[in-house]
Write a structure and sequence with these properties.
single chain, alpha+beta, five-stranded mixed beta sheet, 12 strands, 20% helix, 20% strand, binds ligand MTE, binds molybdenum atom
C-alpha cells in the first residue's frame, strides 16, 4: 500500500471538508502518477485545522484555470501562455534530486525516496510576482527543512543553492542564439530562510500532482518573496557558505537582488511595487490591492531580517 494514514484520526474531523476531499484527490492522483506519498497522522493534524492556521490564508484561491494557464517558466517560453502549451514535453518521471555540498550525508534522491517520509500538507499561500500581479495558490507540499534535516547540514553551511533541470531536447525556450537567461535557472536562500517553516517544497496544487507548467515534479515556494525565488523542476540543492548566484540577479543586478523580499516601499527601478493586480479579479476596472510588507507574512518572517537595511538588501 503506497499511502499510509494515521490510524485513529479521521481527517474529516479535523479539516474543512473541501480540504479533506481535495487531499484525497491528491493522494489518488499521486499514486496514479507513480509517486509514493507518506502521510502520517501528525501531518493530518497540524496546519489543516479549520481555516485559520498560521500558515494558510483564508483569502479565496485563484482559479485552477488561471493558476495553470498564466505562468512564468522561461524554459518553455517567455509568454505567460507558453508554459501551459509547451511544458508537457518535460519528462518528470524518473526524476532525481541531488542534495550535496556542506552536508554530512550528500544524497541523490529518486523522487519516490524523497517523498516517502514527507508529511504532505495543504498550504494556501498568497503569491506575488515581481511584475505586479498576485494569486492565491493552494499548494500541497512539505517543509524544505524536513528534507534538509535528512542530509544533515554542516555548521559551516550558510546558504542553500537550487538548480532547475536543463533539457534542451524538451525545453522549447532554452535553445537558440539569444539566451533570455543563463541556464540552468538558479536560485538561493540563506539557510535560516530555507529552514523557516513557511518555506515549502511543493509537489501539488488544488489537491492534484503539480502540473508541469507549475514546476513539476518538485518546486520551491517562499511566500514572502517575489515569485521568481520559487524555482521550478528542481534537480539539485547545494548547501554552501557563499551567497549563491541567482538567475535574475545575474541577468539584471540593479533590478533583482538576492533577498527579493516583497516590499511595497522599494520600487523596481522601472515600476512601483506599492500595489498589485490579483489575477482573476475583474477586468480593466478591477481595483489594484495594496502590496503588504513580506507579502503579508511579516509576523512570521520579519525577525529574520532584524537589523538589516532592506533598501540595501533588496
Ligand atoms: N525554472 C524556473 N523557475 C521559475 C521561473 C522560471 O522562469 N524558470 N519563473 C519564476 C517566476 S518569475 C514566477 S512568478 C513563478 C511562477 O510560478 P507559477 O507559474 O507556478 O505561478 O515561478 C518562478 N520559478
Ligand atoms: Mo515572477
Amino acid at each position: 500500500m503506497l499511502i499510509r494514514r494515521g490510524p485513529d484520526i479521521k481527517a474529516s474531523e479535523i479539516t474543512p471538508k473541501e480540504i479533506y476531499l481535495s487531499r484525497r484527490h491528491l493522494l489518488g492522483g499521486m499514486a496514479g502518477a507513480g509517486l509514493i506519498a507518506g502521510l502520517g497522522g501528525k501531518a493530518d493534524a497540524a496546519p489543516l485545522t479549520a481555516g485559520k492556521s498560521a500558515f494558510s490564508t483564508d483569502e479565496a484561491p485563484t482559479s485552477l484555470k488561471d493558476i495553470t494557464s498564466y505562468n512564468n517558466f522561461y524554459e518553455f517560453g517567455t509568454d505567460k501562455s507558453e508554459p501551459a502549451r509547451n511544458a508537457h514535453r518535460l519528462t518528470t518521471s524518473p526524476w532525481t534530486v541531488k542534495v550535496d555540498g556542506m552536508v554530512a550525508k550528500p544524497t541523490t534522491f529518486a523522487l519516490e525516496d524523497l517523498l516517502k517520509p514527507a508529511k504532505l500538507e495543504e498550504r494556501i499561500y498568497r503569491m506575488r510576482c515581481v511584475e505586479g500581479w498576485s494569486m492565491v495558490i493552494p499548494w500541497v507540499g512539505f517543509p524544505l527543512a524536513d528534507l534538509l534535516a535528512r542530509v544533515e547540514p554542516l555548521g559551516s553551511a550558510k546558504y542553500v543553492a537550487f538548480e532547475t533541470a536543463l533539457r534542451p531536447e524538451e525545453m522549447t525556450g532554452v535553445g537558440g542564439f539569444f539566451k533570455v537567461l543563463d541556464w540552468p535557472y538558479r536560485e538561493g536562500l540563506r539557510l535560516d530562510e530555507a529552514l523557516h517553516p513557511l518555506t515549502l517544497l511543493a509537489v501539488g496544487l488544488y489537491g492534484e500532482t503539480l502540473p508541469n507548467q507549475n514546476g513539476a515534479p518538485l518546486r520551491l515556494v517562499v511566500p514572502w518573496k517575489y515569485g521568481f525565488k520559487g524555482i521550478k523542476s528542481i534537480v539539485r540543492i547545494t548547501l554552501t557558505d557563499k551567497e549563491p548566484q541567482t538567475s535574475w540577479n545575474m541577468q539584471a543586478p540593479q533590478e533583482y537582488g538576492f533577498y527579493s523580499n516583497v516590499n511595497p516601499d522599494v520600487d523596481h527601478p522601472r515600476w512601483s511595487q506599492a500595489t498589485e493586480r490579483r489575477i482573476g479579479e475583474g477586468g480593466l476596472f478591477a481595483k489594484r490591492r495594496p502590496t503588504l510588507p513580506f507579502n503579508g507574512y511579516a509576523d512570521q518572517v520579519a525577525g529574520l531580517y532584524a537589523g538589516m537595511d532592506l533598501r540595501k538588501f533588496y
